[in-house]
Design brief:
By secondary structure, the protein is α/β, with parallel strands linked by helices. Helix content is 46%, strand content 24%. It is built from twelve helices and 14 strands.
């Protein structure tokens, strides 16, 4: 006997519950009442003959089989959405929701005003933005796009380079006046070092890369905290140029060890394959590439500070 296909609205209801972790939030997102949405999910479970969700007082979590079903169902819904966008493109319409994840420091300082400008250009686009430094599961979390910094792990995700991300070593002038200015990476021994997480300090020395062991005075998971500590002359830190640039420009920190290159990273847009073909996501990625690449606006500040220091 041929099995009947589930109602797409029932599938959508289930997918949104998994993405939001709540029947109430899922119902609000779809535009259904909570009882109607709950009945639709129950009907889907009955039709499939499997329990897809574990319901608790705090919300709902997918069962093991529910998580497997969600990943396939979310991908299918994304493909259907992409098919709808093909039609939307025919009338040059960029419309619909974009769920985006981005790192906190870059997101607040640079991405937020860019996204606001994009939203003004495309009033039919609905942005759902989360700023956080952890790397989220794009497929499992129902994201359309993530902006990520650094090296990307091999995966089935679609990635597009937006701009380079360079680093520099900085410290407050008062600290350097009191403790001396290191001329080589080895001179960092004995200095107060401010580090981001468990980062490794590696410099290009001649033809090879040289790792430098540092003993942190301060360790944090936030770039703005590092910059503030350097500005307060607590020690020496390594920062992405997009965080360091304002402090370099106003003279509250100096760039040191200029002649020893640091490993360069990149800013990427990362998308699940189904999302990458939608017109709205492509429009946003194109906008970000044009806004920040190929040479981002924050690097001239760093280069200007570098040139000033040479004089």
């Amino acid at each position: 006997m041929e099995h009947s296909s589930p109602d797409l609205v029932d599938v959508l209801a289930f997918v949104r519950v998994v993405e939001t972790g709540s029947f109430a939030r899922a119902a609000e997102r779809i535009g259904l009442s909570k009882p109607v949405l709950s009945r639709r999910v129950a009907r889907l479970e009955e039709q499939l003959g499997a329990r897809l969700l574990t319901r608790t007082a705090r919300g709902a979590q997918p069962t093991t089989v529910g998580q497997a079903y969600y990943e396939r169902a979310a991908a299918i819904l994304a493909d259907l959405d992409a098919a709808r966008e093909v039609v939307a493109e025919a009338v040059t319409q960029v419309a619909g929701p974009i769920r985006l994840s981005a790192p906190l420091s870059f997101g607040i300082s640079y991405l937020a005003p860019a996204l606001a400008e994009f939203a003004k250009l495309h009033p039919a686009v609905e942005l759902d933005i989360e700023f956080e430094d952890r790397s989220v599961d794009l497929v499992g979390g129902g994201y359309d796009l993530a902006v990520r910094i650094g090296r990307l792990a091999d995966s089935a995700l679609v990635a597009r380079r937006i701009a380079p991300v360079r680093k520099c070593v900085v410290a407050g002038p008062a600290y350097l006046d009191a403790r001396g200015r290191p001329e080589r990476p080895a001179d960092l021994a004995g200095h107060d070092i401010l580090v981001y997480g468990n980062e490794q300090w590696r410099f290009r020395v001649g033809a090879r890369w040289e790792a430098v062991r540092v003993s942190p005075r301060l360790r944090t998971n936030n770039g703005e905290m590092l910059r503030a500590a350097a500005q307060a002359s607590l020690g020496i830190c390594m920062l992405p140029s997009f965080i360091a640039a304002p402090a370099i420009e106003d003279g509250s920190v100096e760039v040191i060890l200029r002649d020893f290159a640091l490993e360069e990273g990149a800013l990427h847009a990362v998308m699940p394959p189904g999302r990458a073909v939608t017109a709205r996501v492509r429009a946003l990625v194109d906008f970000l590439v044009e806004r920040f690449g190929p040479e981002p606006a924050w690097d001239p500040c760093w280069l200007a500070g570098r040139e000033a220091g040479k004089r």
